[in-house]
Amino acid sequence: MDEIFGIPAPLLFGQLLLGLINGAFYALLSLGLAVIFGMLNVINFAHGAQFMMGAFAAWMLLEYAGLNYWWALLLAPLLVGAFGVILERTMIARLYKLDHLYGLLLTFGLGLIIEGVFRNQYGSSGLPYRIPPQLSGAWDLGFMFMPVYRGWVVAVAAVMCLATWLVIEKTKIGSYLRASTENAALVQAFGINVPRLMTLTYGAGVALAAFAGVLAAPIYSVNPQMGSNLIIIVFAVVVIGGMGSILGSVITGFGLGIIEGLTKVFYPEASSTVIFVVMAIVLLARPAGLFGRA
User: Membrane spanning segments where (predicted)?
Assistant: First the structure.
């Protein structure tokens, strides 16, 4: 299998793998955004900065505490999620009854502040974070060599997305979350602490972004701009999938990553804009997004 559609097979499959990796990050980040918007009605523009904080948390746990990748994968999302809980309690909770624009402006400003603090402390050049020894090397698939760590990223992102969807759609706490978005007063009348539920929801959405940041740290250099480079694309993914749609974010994230990868093979000039072209077409046909409700 030397060529497919006139394209060398290693090049085609390599770009498909790259698309899947990008799609994994799009899916995880858009999932966190969808959870926060769908449950709290807050457009969290600080999500890219929180993704970056996850990568930096992993790097600092290694450099200052000597903790390896596996500990970072567990602890970094918890630490950044706890920071998100503090943000929600002190600032964001005050905006729930106001227009979406206030939340967008607040989180946009918070994202700029967080990025500025890290850029002032660590500069703009990337900091290396090595791949764990257990995930180094590559698999020979016959038609291409697939780096083990890249395969791990795609697999664990898919599992995390599925687990999040199952928690929200199939568990009791997920039903409480969905009910509180429809009628918070009624849910509170049944003895459910809705403000605490909203706080934990925001913290979980932030932790998902941080988890993606830890996964990204060995692939991309750890730098303060790594979140701002992704956040616009991720917002486009959320809009295409449907604002607040959990399943839509996951499917659209992986799908658009693959489309972007294939575009780099067949029409490289359009690879940086294809997602926004898809967004324009989808919004013309379905203003609420592919999986959204009007």
Answer: 12-35, 68-87, 99-118, 149-168, 200-220, 232-259, 266-285
Q: What are the residue ranges spanned by the domains of the chain?
A: 3-123+146-285
Per-residue pLDDT tens over the stretch 126-153 = 888 999 888 888 887 776 677 889 889 9
Calculate Rg over the CA atoms of the chain: 19
Contacts of 154 by beta carbon, 8 Å cutoff, 6+ apart? 20, 21, 24
Return the H-helix or E-strand segment holding 290. none
Query: Quick check: 261 and 250 in contact, CB under 8 A?
Result: no
Render pLDDT for 90-133 as a digit per residue (tens, 0 to 9).
999 888 878 888 888 999 999 999 999 999 999 888 888 999 88
This prediction's pTM: 0.90
Q: Nearest 5°: CA angle at 53, between 51 and 55?
A: 75
Strand 138-140 versus strand 7-8 pairing type = unpaired
CATH domain 3-123+146-285 topology? ABC transporter involved in vitamin B12 uptake, BtuC (1.10.3470)
